[in-house]
Task: structure prediction
Amino acid sequence: MSSHSIQEISARLIDELGTILGRPLQADDGQRALHEIGVDSISLVELLVVIEKDFGLSLMEAGLSADDFRTISSLATVIHKRSQ
Amino acid sequence: MKSRSSYRAPKCYLSGIDWFLRALDCRTRAVTGIGNYSQIVLALRGHLDPDLLRVRLHDFIIRNPVLQGYCRRNYLNLAPYWDLPCTVDMRTKWLDVRPAATGSDVDALSALADEVNQPLTGRQRIAFTLVPGARLSYLAMRFDHQVLDAAGAERLLLSISTWGSTSEPLPLGDRRAHLDEWMAKFRSGQTVNRALLALRESEPPTAFPLPDATDRIRSLFAFHSFSDHETKAITEHAERRVGYLMLMPFLLGVTVRSFHELCLKSGLDGKHYVVPVTIDNRRNTNESVFFNQLSFNFYRFDAGTASDQAALWKQAATQLYEQTRVRTSYHLAQAGYLMRICPAPWLGRLMGLPLSGRLGSFSFALVAGQGYAAHDFMDVPIENIYHTPRVPTPPGIGIYFNRYQNRLNMVLSYLEGMLDPLDAKSLADTLAERLRTGNETVS
Result:
């Protein structure tokens, strides 16, 4: 997955999170804080499990700051950096 | 008087989780004399017209006969289903109006909480109690868990609030028999069995003994309602201590520590605690409000580390991740389809076998979704929404959180005789104080 751009990763995460939340998300939801789009403990962890499966990255224990998890864009940036 | 419903739905099969809940209902009824009910209390800032509500309920229940249904077994495929009556018995008293509350709001809420201990009669699945008050009025809806879960009940209340003469009956969702993919369901059953046996290890989890069975054992409650400001602080503590959006593991970790201290004080000296945690499986707001769209995860905490708050938070977050990764709640729901062949009263006894009759130390839930996504009920503004559930037996003790708008509420529910009411209040006070401060060392 390291060849994917941040935008591609972000689009993938938006798609996956839409499935988890049961409603389609828009591209600009990528910039919004996750709690504002209805993400809670369970749905965030479901997203992290998808990231582990799809990108081979375990972010739960990776020592990331809260800001790294704050938006889909910030998560996509972390995934992109760690996939290099 | 019976009113005929014009609505006739296809056969409405029960899921495996519905069957578990029915088994818990049988077990709870056998031990306490009362079924597995719960209740939602709306605190309203104003006067709600009881006559208007009666008319609304009459029309709503006629057109949603699932609320007077009952369980039967299909003689061809043996799957249990919910029989929807063609006629709805309107002699049932749906709304009881009580005299205006004279004490404080807390007194009114405590008195109303006891309503959940009143048995529902016949095929009645919901019942309402209205208490007008000086500052606040209270509307309580108690409901049978066989046909509604907590999040579904909030949505049902919202549907009643917005119900009109031209409204369509609420959809029942996917009620297929699910008599397929047997091998996958067997594998799910194996996964669940192994997980439960791993939880047990050498001895069953620490739990308070159930009271001796009598005719009727009530559930008692201790409440705490956090202000907007306190709720914001709790959310920030959760983020700082456990991680962004990690409210559930934060609450669970603090709860386990406080429960552990109560066990030590009460002379219960076990090796570990097991906590069944309810997971809401609704994916979107269009899914049916009816039946149980939920499943469970099971968390295990060693008593040896239960005084270490930071360790408990870490364990809670790690287990949340692990159980999500291995899909425990999904496998439990799938395995449940197989268990429907077992009569519910028997299943109620069998369910406890892997943990020697103890389904857990206490049960836990956080109802944090937007179940009631409105600010009023029938145009009367809502101050807050409380949940006062009877805890399934076993374990007979539950600690539950719900969130309405920007406010978090906590309720400790326990069977009369299991805890001293002063100990219960102390547990709730300690827990609330730790949540407010977010401090690892508050004792």
User: Anything to note?
Assistant: Chain A is about 55% helix and 0% strand. The first helix of chain A runs from residue 6 to 21. The helical segments of chain A are 6-21, 41-55, 66-69, 72-83.
